[in-house]
Amino acid sequence: MSFFTLYSRVLGQLKPERTLAIILTLANLGVAGLQFVEPIMFGKVVDTLSSAARHTAEEVWHESFHLLGLWAVIGVGGILANVLVALHSDRMAHRRKLAAMAQYFEHVLELPLAYHLDTHSGRLIKIMLQGADNMFGIWLSFFREHLSTFIALIVLLPMSMFMNWRLGLVLIVLLVVFAVLSILVMMRTEGAQREVQEFHSELAERAGDALGNVGLIQSFVRLALEVQQLGQVMGKVLAAQYPVLTWWAMVTVLTRAASTLTVITIFTLGTWLFLHGQTSVGEIVSFMGFANLLIGRLQQAMGFANTLFFQQPGLNDFFSVLDAKSAVAEKPGATELGRVQGHVTFENVSLSYGDKQAVTGLNFDIAPGSMVALVGTTGAGKSTAMALLHRLWDPQTGRVTIDGLDIRDVTLSSLRRNIGVVFQESTMFYRTIAENLQVGHPDATEAELIEAATLAEAHEFIMAQPNGYQTLVGERGRTLSGGERQRIGIARALLKNPPILILDEATSALDSVTEAKVQKALSALMKGRTTFVIAHRLSTIRDADWVLVMDKGRIIEQGRYDDLAKAGGAFTGLLNRAG
Ligand SMILES: Nc1ncnc2c1ncn2[C@@H]1O[C@H](COP(=O)(O)OP(=O)(O)OP(=O)(O)O)[C@@H](O)[C@H]1O
Ligand SMILES: [Mg+2]
């Protein structure tokens, strides 16, 4: 995104409070206008004083008193107005910053799993915090400084031309010098600054990744190595940043030098004009006031350009995340899927992850309420097939229907409300056990929580925790054992009470005694629901109505459990090997 597009997009984020933003802009412009009064007043006072010899003391006092009084009223009034406007702009900037973060957060959570598999959460968090911070800074300085600088530039230049066009020309030359130098350096350093940003993101990504895997680092004694690798990235940040800083330092020196030269030129030219009777001392003083204002403003404007320049890559990242589209986007006019019967069909469904074919030509038709077993070697595509059912991905060919409706024609939330999933690894929020149970059913009462936990054989161990249901589990539930997490995952699905259930290795982390107990709960849970069970332990799928045997992404056999068991094919082979 170019400099100006980016700038207007940042300001565009204020749109939800458009009216207030416009009022504040106008008020700021008004306040900014007051700044020109000062040099004019100053010049007038000087003129009054320098003509003092021709007037009586009383006249001089009278005149000065009026001028100074007016000056004071305008000054104090300006300060008051300024504070009021600044206060409101600050509040708005704070509000919009949080709103921008909320918008980003919601958008990122909506992005498909495929996006998150490619983009580390550490990077996404950094982009959010940095982007929001940068926009906040730009909004604040837009109201506090940019506007008055902008106004100053567009008013001061013509005004100085009007006052004295010869002196005015000097200022215009200075403006051109500033603009040309800034643009040149920006063009020169843009690529390098983008690189710096990329390294910064890499830094956040690495740090986030290391923090998320503390156990791995400690057990494999990788501490020194991780720190060293982080240090290497930091080295790359600095190596890319230094040349950019050098260029900008050079611009600062050159523009400052140009400013000093300008002041000297104005004095010299002013003296010459005065000697030739073409200007008064007061006019030169006013003009010097103007020149100083203008130079100050130019330097400020370059400061903003500089800041925005350094923030540009980060802001671009922020907006490109916001612009990322969901791969499983909802169709306009998608219908709400009510509670379904659970008739599931796959019609010639294929999916590849990039170049890698994951499942090919899946065909099956499952009657409502059936229990389906998916078996096959690891990597056969079982989890992928189920991911297609709750639309983590859309198939490249074919379609998946529930109760005869293509799942791409219904809203994602209504689809997912109908499907409960229990994984081998139940992920957890860094919240209490009760909150982790409630994820699928936020209004569940305590009695309902206990009932579900009891069915899932989880109540006992939960009560053994220091604070029972109010115990905080560690990040990702790391203070619980794998089997405990899994039972919470099952209880969670029980509470959600969906008509379609996916159990992907849901009991694999349990010992055989607990598994037998949980199995009972699961059998109860499966009644009246279409259930897909993925299990490597074939003993757990003995009650299946239908079996799908997968291999290398294809279904190589399907049929009723008893039929397949006797058929002498792949499934019979699996059963025999399992003993
Ligand atoms: N997000 C992904 N990106 C790329 N490849 C993937 C992704 N997820 C799975 N795969 C690949 O797709 C293939 C099928 O994986 P899938 O998880 O469906 O197997 P599975 O039958 O569930 O295996 P397991 O029994 O080990 O759970 C595997 O080769 C796997 O490496
Ligand atoms: Mg799997």
The ordered string of helix (H) and strand (E) elements is HHHHHHHHHHEEEHEEHEHHHHEHEEEHH
First and last CA, distance: 63 Å
Gyration radius from CA atoms, angstroms: 35 Å
Inertia-based shape:
elongated
Sheet having the most strands: 6 strands, mixed
Structure description:
There is one protein chain. By secondary structure, the protein is α/β, with parallel strands linked by helices. The model has no long low-confidence stretch (mean pLDDT 88). The relative contact order is 0.08. The protein contains 19 helices and ten strands. A six-stranded mixed β-sheet has the order 6-7-8-3-9-10, with helices on both faces. The protein folds into two domains: 3-323, ABC transporter type 1, transmembrane domain (ABC transporter transmembrane region fold, Up-down Bundle), CATH 1.20.1560.10; 344-578, P-loop containing nucleotide triphosphate hydrolases (Rossmann fold, 3-Layer(aba) Sandwich), CATH 3.40.50. It is elongated and about 125 Å long. Helix 2 (18-33) packs parallel to helix 6 (121-163) and helix 7 (165-212) packs parallel to helix 10. The structure holds adenosine-5'-triphosphate and magnesium ion. Magnesium ion is lined by residues 382-383, 504. The site of magnesium ion has 3 residues, from helix 11.
Task: Give a quick precis of the structure.
With 579 residues, the protein is an alpha/beta fold. The protein is elongated.
